[in-house]
Amino acid sequence: MSVLESRATEMVSQPDQDRTAAARPRLWLLLDDRPGHTTQVVGLAEALGWPYEAKELRFPPLNRISNRLLGASRLSLDAGRSAELAAPWPDLVIAMGRRSAPIARWIKRQSGGRTRLVQRGRKAANVAGDFDLAVTCAHFRLPAHPRRLDLLL
After folding, report:
1. DSSP code of 132?
2. Distance between CA 102 and CA 124 in Å, rounded?
3. Where are the alpha helices (DSSP H) in the chain?
4. What span, in angstroms and rounded, lies between the C-alpha atoms of 94 and 112?
5. pLDDT tens across 80-109, in order?
């Protein structure tokens, strides 16, 4: 079992003393094969202190297609090698990177718009209006947007 799997299992199974299971938000982390993305997404989830499910995503060469063309879809996902994405849909998805953005938008569409999306990264969050919160670094100098949070790093 990897360190991430161990931490994810620990977080999912750790009881929250202040809230009942029904009141806790369902949180999914969309994780790709890039360690820096995983570290930042897991770090944000752990800072929230909520239990989460880590959803490992794998991508075929089709993932190089522009996100503008992919829209809210799983076309760029290798479903056979990725974690299952099915109802019950999460309350919140945290993801990072251009490749996870279409998948996050697809999840929101499947949930009937109920799922909230937090997207990290310059290339993924450059269209901040697609997400409930886009988190980028200020040094990228992206245009101001009410849903974008620029961090000083």
Report:
1. S
2. 9
3. 3-13, 35-48, 67-70, 101-110
4. 18
5. 999 999 999 999 999 999 999 999 999 999
